[in-house]
Amino acid sequence: LLEHADLDFVFGVVRAYEHDRDMCYDPLRSSLSGVFCRPQHPLAIRGTADAAELAGAEWALISSSLSRSAFRDYFSSRGLPPPHVGLYTNSLPALLGIVRETDVVTNLPEQLVAADVACGALAQLRADAPGGHASIGFLYRRSQVVTPAMQVAMELIRGFGENLYPAARDS
Q1: H-assigned helices in 12-109
Q2: Which end of the chain is more exposed for a tag (fewer CB within 10 A), N or C?
Q3: What is the pLDDT of residues 102-126, one digit of tens each?
Q4: What is the number of other CB atoms lying within 10 angstroms of the CB of residue 137?
């Protein structure tokens, strides 16, 4: 949608942004990624998981070709087959709802789910995260004229994001 000018910009999580001559990425915050599941998940009860156990788990992930590639590379670099991913979605609320209610695991920036972990809705596993590092920010077309309305929207999101995702965990 962004490439075809159906959207002016996208605000979200970007795992391994590769510079694209047609796109600009303006990061708001960087964050370490973590592996999360519901507290009743068998891995959460143990509290830890190694790469082989993660490869045997059912996953739900944010949909992104770069994320998919990094996810597969994490397992193949350890001599493991990539795990089954039962859901790819572009909706963080949908993803979190599925993870909270079923025995799937996900890989997200720690800051995005800190409130869910703090209130006990999600558990973070002690495990190397397949994504490692991600950033939260704006992606827009290089040729895009930033309109005053777009600028206001981006500044409001930036201000809200800086309060919601403090810089303490920046990498």
Answers
A1: 42-46, 51-55, 65-76, 92-101
A2: N
A3: 999 999 888 889 899 999 999 999 9
A4: 22
